[in-house]
Design brief:
The protein has 180 residues and is mainly α. It has helices at residues 8-22, 29-36, 40-43, 50-68, 75-92, 96-103, 111-123, 128-150, 157-177. The model has no long low-confidence stretch (mean pLDDT 90).
């Protein structure tokens, strides 16, 4: 790839491909540069460092999850589909949980995407404060459940969906109790 065609999206795409193939431990700027046939220093024009790359990878995966959520007629249906999209990503992308863990330190990474989620949920009738907490609870459930799955605890997709539905039913009950 020529330097002129090199951009941040292409670097992140290649990093995610490497993540899927070899795991997070193999993701390095040097390896990505080799795969793209550019010098490592060329990457630094587009990505500050490995931590920034991890944040960009995490945001890209998270955005793909959001983009896969179909239009919904209720906030609870949207949250359900969002949870499924996150589950599918975290169970199909090698070391996704580790990527999430290392990116947590990047304050502000993906805040605009959280804003999109809150906007979507409020448009469907959930107040903004509840929307922010509800989406975080779904994300925490997914990450916790996929972690259980990774350590051989009986945490299959069907049991996850049951847990997700129970969580969302709790949010529906709480939201209904808050209505005048």
């Amino acid at each position: 790839m020529s330097f002129a065609k090199l951009d941040q999206d292409g670097i992140v795409e290649e990093a995610i491909a490497l993540l899927k193939e070899e795991g997070l431990g193999a993701v390095s700027l040097r390896k990505i540069a080799t795969r793209l046939s550019v010098s490592v220093s060329s990457l630094y024009w587009h990505v500050e460092d490995k931590q920034a790359l991890h944040a960009l990878m995490s945001i890209s995966i998270f955005k793909a999850c959001l983009d896969s959520v179909p239009p919904a007629e209720s906030w609870w249906a949207w949250l359900h589909d969002f949870g499924i999209a996150l589950w599918d990503a975290q169970t199909s992308i090698r070391d996704a949980r580790q990527l999430i863990a290392v990116t947590r330190a990047q304050r502000g990474a993906g805040n605009h995407l959280i804003g999109q989620i809150v906007k979507e949920l409020t448009a469907l009738g959930l107040n903004a404060e509840r929307a922010a907490v509800a989406q975080r609870s779904v994300q925490a459930l997914v990450t916790g459940w996929t972690t259980l799955r990774a350590v051989q605890v009986a945490a299959d997709r069907d049991s996850f969906i049951l847990a997700l539905d129970v969580l969302i039913d709790g949010w529906r009950t709480r939201a209904g109790a808050d209505q005048p």
